[in-house]
Amino acid sequence: MIKAKINTRDRILELLKKEVSLSVNELTELLNITHMAVRKHLIVLENEGLVKSTETKQSMGRPLQVYSLTDKGDQIFPKNYEGITLEFLRDIEELHGEKSIQLLFERRENRLTQEYKNRMNNKSITEKIDELVNIQNEKGYMANVTQLDNQTFELIEYNCPIYSVAQEFKMACRCETEMFKNVLDTDQVRRVCCKTDGDDHCKFKLKFN
């Protein structure tokens, strides 16, 4: 019984991470449980400081109460960087200039490109896409892909494990996009939106000829 409650609360946190904000009605439909059960879980999560509620005006009727993650709630999702990484990058830039930072990210891009390619040998396009999602999820990106047509896919990353670094050093995002092009063997990789630009998630359009 206790395990089920924990799983439901984890599921609520995951849904709020992906959808950004949800009402009780929306959570009820997604979780297929009662309003009362959803509210009980939300009360616990609010008391733990993991979620917060705000009121959104509607064209008719009373304001709608929606829930979203707090900063504390967002921090429970994988983050594989530490503050010292950012400090080191700043120190390197100050001591050796911006070019040195660019070289570091390019070396990281080359290293990751080889790592990803090693897992994509002799795979079809669809298999490469699936493997890319697997790798990104292993690294904490909470990735998901949707096939839009025979040649086009949409990749969404709901979490950014290197967000603090990427926010200050945008070349990290550019290197990731270039790395995707190289491992998928297509120049048609476009970053549609990015968390460092204030968007909710990072989203890519992947197209193959």
From TrEMBL:
Superkingdom of origin: Bacteria
UniProt entry keywords in alphabetical sequence: DNA-binding, Transcription, Transcription regulation
Transcription in keyword set: yes
Domain HTH deoR-type per the UniProt entry, residue ranges: 9-53
SUPFAM superfamilies listed in its UniProt record: Winged helix' DNA-binding domain
UniProt entry tagged with the keyword Protein biosynthesis: no
GO MF terms, alphabetically ordered: DNA binding; DNA-binding transcription factor activity
CDD domains: HTH_ARSR (cd00090)
Protein name per Swiss-Prot or TrEMBL: Transcriptional regulator
Taxonomic classification: Bacteria, Bacillati, Bacillota, Bacilli, Bacillales
